[in-house]
Amino acid sequence: MEQSGRNILDRIVIATAPSVTSQVYDWMRERVLRGELAPGARLSETEIAGAIGVSRQPVREAFIRLASDGLAEVRPQRGTYIGKISVAAVLSARLIREAVESDLARMVAADPPVEMLARMAEEIALQERADAEGAVEAFIDSDDRFHRLLATGARQEAVWHDLEKLKSQMNRLRHMSMRAFDRAGTIGQHRDILEALRRRSPDAAERAVRAHLRQMLDELPRIAARHPDFFTD
After folding, report:
1. Residue 74: what are its φ and ψ, rounded to 5°?
2. Which sequence ranges form a coiled-coil region, renumbered to this chain (predicted)?
């Protein structure tokens, strides 16, 4: 019976394209995270639907999904607005990320895969080029890949996916900080992490990761002071 069940499942082919709502949601979410839709900005179903060539219904549904993520706020009789950045959510995500990534670094440092070290070095080189060209989005994409390699090297990809679900508010701040502050400092911290891994030093790797991720504790109050209307407790 078990074998028969597997045969049935093997014959099932799922080839469903992403729904229009999901595509609109992904498009809008990315713009919120990048700061292209600023905190507090009012969203218009009609304008967005017209701009991307869809009906208002999937846009309305995307608004609801954004609100459930804490990225938008639906105000009855007033409209939908981009949510402000929650300081509490940023600090919580940063704390969890530090705890998890420092443990991943210790795990990897005990026996770092050669391929992982090579790919980390490649990402640092990409970050240097992106920094020189002022390509902030390319820099952030490379930064994400660099950190994901820690989970990959520790064979803990699922952990990275769990972290991704937690750090939407943190990512919004990252996009602001990468534009406002010296990206060379981030590159230097990545080099420190890579060097500790190459030396197979779990203690040094943990220290380097913790120092790197605590940088946000200095950046957050400075950005919030520059843009007080973008933040909420």
Report:
1. -95, 115
2. none
Condensed to tens digits (0 to 9), the pLDDT of residues 24-80 reads 999 999 999 999 999 999 999 999 999 889 999 999 999 999 999 889 998 888 889
At how many degrees (to 10) do helices 215-226 and 168-180 cross?
A: 80
pLDDT of residue 150: 96
CA distance 53 to 49: 6
Whether residue 197 contacts residue 105, with contact meaning beta carbons closer than 8 Å, is answered with yes
> For the chain, which residues make up each domain, given as ranges?
2-83, 86-232
Listed in sequence order, the residues at least 6 apart from 48 whose beta carbon sits closer than 8 Å to its beta carbon are: 24, 28, 59
Q: Which CATH class is domain 2-83?
A: mainly alpha
8-33: per-residue pLDDT in tens?
Answer: 444 444 344 468 899 999 999 999 99
Structure tokens at 183: 């990206």
- Residue recorded with tokens 């769990």: 162
φ, ψ dihedrals at 4, nearest 5°: -60, -40
Q: What's this model's pTM, rounded to 2 decimal places?
A: 0.84
Q: Strand 231-232 to strand 79-82: parallel, antiparallel, or no bridges (unpaired)? A: unpaired
Question: Look-up: residue for tokens 């534009």?
Answer: 179
Overall CATH class of domain 86-232: mainly alpha
111 and 197 in contact (C-beta within 8 Å)? no
Residue 18 pLDDT: 66
